[in-house]
Write the structure tokens for this entry.
Amino acid sequence: MTTRDFKILLIAFFLFSGNFNTIAQTKKEPLSRILFIFDASASMLGRWQSGRKIDIAKKLLSNMVDSLQDIENLELALRVYGHKSGYPPQDCEDTHLEVGFLKANYAVDIIKKKLSVIRSRGTTPIARSLEEGAKDFPDKDARNIVILITDGKEECEMDPCAVSRLYQRKGIILKPFVIGVGLDQSWKESFDCVGRFFDASKEQDFTNILNIVISHVIDNTTAQVNLLDENGEPTETNVNITFYNDFTGISKYNYIHTINAYGNPDTMVIDPVLTYKVVAHTIPPVTVNDIELRAGKHTIIPINTPQGELEITMNSKVKYQYIVRPSKIDSTLNVQEINTVEKYLTGSYDIELLTLPRKSFLDVEIYQSAKTTYAIETPGVANIILPSKGYGGLYVYNGDNLEQIYHFKGEKDQHRLTLLPGRYKVVFRAKSGKNYIYTTERSFKLKSGQSELIKIY
């Protein structure tokens, strides 16, 4: 290599390195947005330990937003309901965005000042507030989180559960957090379908719950999926894993499971706001439900997926396929091609090879980390020459019984069939033969790899 060539390579290297570093530096952490929906309805004037609910909740929420002031990539907003119109009469449109989304360091003081002048007056339009709150978010290109703080149930004949589910399915918001402030015991279950519910029956509970909720928003949370073999060891890998939002049923993450350089299942960063259904796409798939991650912690998700391998080998130009079913269950799990290897959960299966004739294997056992193999004889070729176009077909002998495996439909007089080795019979009647006595039959035997000419006279 000349000095000139070396210099060119060196320049190219530094240019590429510079571009790579620029790309790495421009990659940003995901933006999180928190919309606080605050209940200022008349019921918040009720007593709650050391004072009125509204005063205690305002104070504790103000303290909490103070702690968020220096969080990067975080925006805050405040929506309040029940504070503009007195009750009665009932005003179900009394929900207002009091502080729009701003970076946390700007939003905190504004939210605190707004909370200080809020007064409890009206009714409780929770569903309308969730609906309008979803529209408060500028877009869905962020972790859009709703924290609803309330002491009462819906009073405006709308369905908060339906509204929450709708905007989660649209991807506009994540599963809301609902903090119940001294809620009546009979109302608590009605919030389970709205979001993740926390019951603050005491003032100290409220502070602890806010800390937990905020931890879900700002703390890095990791998880690993342990695909366990029959010995309970996490040795299985290279399986597709899907995390579904357990509330909406929509897939959130799709990963190919790996084991890292230290022999451990890889660590994934997973949003702790949601509850998940995790599916390991083995054959058959394995599902675990109600997976909740501990915010800021590492969660191990064990899934029992002991696997072995299956292969059917055959020397054939035809790429035959075979159906794999659970043993004694008429339900297709997989369609596999001959001379390929596929993994299955350990257990018993039925196999149907789509050859002519079809060949079945029942109660095939798949064992942990072992390969179950079946070798099929090389098929032969039967060249059937008919005297004319006609009807009938080809039969295979199963002991003394005959099973028709191919039909003559009166469309052609030559049939070239690839068949498994065995004993066969041709039964034929010409189109022109209008009586059953014109039926002709001939038996033949086909050996592995053999080509046989069968003429019907």
About this structure: Residues 380-455 form a domain with the Immunoglobulin-like fold (CATH 2.60.40.1120). The mean pLDDT is 89. Residues 3-26 form the longest helix (24 residues). The chain has four domains: 32-218, 222-304, 307-376, 380-455.
